[in-house]
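Translate sequence into structure tokens.
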Amino acid sequence: MDIDAGRQVYLPRCNGDVDDDGREKRTGTMWTATAHIITAVIGSGVLSLAWAIAQLGWVAGPLSLVLFAIVTFYTCGLLADCYRVGDPVTGKRNYTYTEAVQAYLGGWHVWFCGFCQYVNMFGTGIGYTITASISAAALKKSNCFHKYGHKADCSQHLSGYIIGFGVVQVIFCQVPNFHKLSWLSVVAAVMSFSYAAIAVGLSLAQTISGPRGKTSLTGTEVGVDIDASQKVWTTFQALGNVAFAYSYSIILIEIQDTLASPPAENKTMRQATLMGISTTTAFYMMCGCLGYAAFGNTANGNILTGFGFYEPYWLVDFANVCIVLHLVGGFQVFCQPLFAAVEGAAVRRYPSLAREHSIVFRLVWRTAFVGLTMLLAVVMPFFNSILGFLGSIAFWPLTVFFPVEMYIRQRQIPKFSTKWVALQSLSFVCFLVTAAACAASIQGVRDALKTYTPFKTKT
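Result follows.
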């Protein structure tokens, strides 16, 4: 690629209504980018942090949150520097993550990046379906406990709730693109803050009134709570849950593409990343640590479905409604790009789809996609194992590997130099964490399947 020649093409134009590439003028600021980051990061992953810290303990739990935050901030800075090819002010812009990988690495890296992105999007659709269904079931469960007492059998079958969530998604999925659903994204953002704040408030109240479990420096105790092998697996699975809670690199380039320039987008994005990750880490610390303090080593995988959270039942109901509404929008945020990619590829191969059968094709294939996510959610309704798996497969390749490799190529860092070795060491260590978390999540699913009967799972 001739970068110097490219600079002449992408010099800013005089027209105030368009950007340096002729597209509509961008108006984003550090504050809007920070809001996007916080909205993207704070999601259903926050609900599993109390459980994660229960597996890791008071030392490793908070430390893992801080370390993941530091690594995410650093590698997101590297990724932000790859937004433009060549000059950070006048170079050619990359509008998506995959375009950035194509510009700097090319070859098999592009395929691998697309694979990681779309598998993560598909998996997140399954994870969101499971989470929303558990929360919907918790609504009826909490009212049952309130009416009949905590000794009553108020367990609920998940399958019906999963199907109900899928029906809603079939309807929303027929909207051609996510630009037509911006209002849903706004509602989802408000909902995510609401239920996370309720989780923090209820945890604090439970801690003050009297914890329901014992805490320790190392978390769950071998021989008391679990055996030695389970301790190893749940520890790595907890790391996968923490990784999932910080997973937003997949849309960083898209967020950066909303920023006005000057100043250079990478500088603004670094500031926004610092603000966003600092805010979410503080929030995670409160939710995870207070949840652990409230429930100890017996903390539930989804904190809002924990035994002690069915009073005050009306507040728990509101929190679970917020979760369901958030995940209705969250499902679309992650799946609409996948829809666009598949439909774009289909149209390029079969042009008649765009002219004659676009509506029918969209109806059939998107409905089939939602149906598949429903089926897999019914077959594998394992909240923490699924979140751990999603976090592990997204963390190393999308948050660490590609940003590091693109940065090395961009700055032409000599192989085996001190900086090259440091960056590759960071990538290798994160790969080991990802591999361990992925293996632990798969083991968690295997263990759950030993006592699992399809279509009869209760929560």
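Note: Residues 28-450 form a domain with the Amino acid/polyamine transporter I fold (CATH 1.20.1740.10).
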